[in-house]
Amino acid sequence: MNIGIDFGTSYSAAATFVGDELTLIHFGEARQFRTAVFFPEVVPDPNDFQLTPELDAQVEAHIRSARAQQRQFAMEAQQRGGAFVERSDSELRRDALRTVRRQWMERRAAESPTATVESFQHALFGDEAVEAYLEYGDGNLIESPKSMLGYRLDPQVRKVIVHIATHILEHIRLAASRQLGEAVRTAVIGRPVHFRSSMGEKGSEQAVEILREAAAVAGFDAVSFLEEPAAAAMHYHKRLTTRQAALIVDIGGGTTDVAFAELGGDELPRIVHTWGLAKGGTDLDINLSMHSFMPQLGNNVTRVPVHHFVEAASVHNLPKQREFRRQDYRMVDEPWQSRLRALQQPGATTRLNQTAERSKITLSAVDDTHADLGFLEPGLGVGIARADMDEAVEPFIHRMQRLLAEVREEWPGVPASVFLTGGTSRSPIVKAAVRDSFPGIPMVEGDPSLGVVSGLAVAAAEAATATV
């Protein structure tokens, strides 16, 4: 059985054809999972945690405090004429319980170094990995490992990256094997035109080598690679009854890829040319964090260098995260000192990134929102308007439009349509920028999450047929 794998920066997915039917691989109840993996170290046994009356009172106190903060935030949003997305009681209780459990585990470890511990035997993936990291505050959370594949790596770091990619690919292979009822040993893996890299084309070559090596260790006998815009083109090809020239624009979490293709009809799809930009949705999250959140921690207010804040916002970059946590902020004035030191605590940069991502998504539907930063300082929050997000993402939009201008100059003819896909294509700002780049040409929107993996499944099925 040959499957298609979309090893994404933000989310990963897999699919294949069973007969003539496209079959998406499920990971639990989901059709994709966040590309994050958690390797726990030794932690106090969570089964020893009991919600005593004293601990229950602490939970309720946290909930009351959070509700009071929400009321204050809602009043401020109403005064501004904006919107405030209130968190449910179940969400407030979950976070309060997680905080109390984590504090209990920290106290227990300090009071009894020889307490019973358990070492997790298996890595956790996706949202489960993020939740585990936030709850335990120990171990290693690796987010968006794809973003690191093309950078200059010393031998030890390279081993770690191969190990992480191996776990993710093995997770996908085993899930597919269970669902399909047979061993999955071959795959077509999507790749961007240009990986994010510090070494140019050599970085992309290294990234493919790492994925190939990881796939072999993960149990794949053979893998091939297909550029992601070409995969999206194959997906779109299946929808077209007549032949046409089309432009494929795939805007993912880490990269933006474009392909000019001849698609549809009875002939095979033909990719004429591809272009790539090593920027995507994760850059929007970082830009929004830098614009709206980091000033609350002293960016452009204190003497702390700007690159410290960039390092804190770059949760997908392990070296930058380590560098940020090594910094000493004891000489920084308050309140910035306390906030920066709180951001250095385990899980805090991940929480900040999640808050930026949620704010980005919310501002796609409303004009104003409020972000709760109470995990850094009780009562801390910031109001964000859609205009703030427009300003924050302008550098990415400008880079993307420069790429699309290059495409316009180089394409071999005027396309009949523009096919837009990729997770970041959901953003109204991004969508409008693509439409403005190709005025008068119909724009067709594909499945933002599953367009690429569907095309990879087509390629996998054709490859399997060719070998029969």
What does this protein look like?
- This protein is of the alpha+beta class.
- It has a domain at 42-119.
- The chain contains 14 helices and 18 strands.
- The chain has helices spanning 53-80, 89-111, 126-136, 155-180, 201-217, 228-237, 281-293, 306-313, 318-326, 336-343, 348-362, 386-410, 428-437, 451-467; strands spanning 2-6, 11-18, 21-24, 33-34, 36-39, 42-44, 117-119, 124-125, 140-143, 186-191, 222-227, 244-251, 256-263, 270-277, 368-372, 381-385, 417-421, 443-445.
- Strand 2 (11-18) and strand 3 (21-24) form a beta hairpin.
- The radius of gyration is 23 Å and the shape is globular.
Give a brief description:
By secondary structure, the chain is an alpha+beta fold.
Mean pLDDT: 87
Shape: globular
Largest sheet: 6 strands, mixed
What radius of gyration results from the CA coordinates? 23 Å
Query: Could you give the count of β-strands?
Result: 18
- How far is the N terminus from the C terminus? 12 Å
Q: Portion of residues in helices?
A: 40-55%
Low-confidence stretches: 112-121
Name the structural class. Answer: alpha+beta
Strand content: 15-25%
Individual helix count = 14
Pfam families: HSP70 (PF00012)
Keywords: ATP-binding, Nucleotide-binding
Organism: Luteibacter jiangsuensis
Protein name: Chaperone protein
Give me the secondary-structure topology.
Elements: E1 2-6, E2 11-18, E3 21-24, E4 33-34, E5 36-39, E6 42-44, H1 53-80, H2 89-111, E7 117-119, E8 124-125, H3 126-136, E9 140-143, H4 155-180, E10 186-191, H5 201-217, E11 222-227, H6 228-237, E12 244-251, E13 256-263, E14 270-277, H7 281-293, H8 306-313, H9 318-326, H10 336-343, H11 348-362, E15 368-372, E16 381-385, H12 386-410, E17 417-421, H13 428-437, E18 443-445, H14 451-467
Parallel strand pairs: 1-10, 10-11, 12-17, 17-18
Antiparallel strand pairs: 1-2, 2-3, 2-4, 5-8, 5-9, 6-7, 12-13, 13-14, 15-16
Helix pairs in contact: 1-2, 4-5, 6-14, 7-11, 7-12, 8-9, 12-13
Keywords: ATP-binding, Nucleotide-binding
Protein name: Chaperone protein
InterPro entries: ATPase_NBD (IPR043129), Hsp_70_fam (IPR013126)
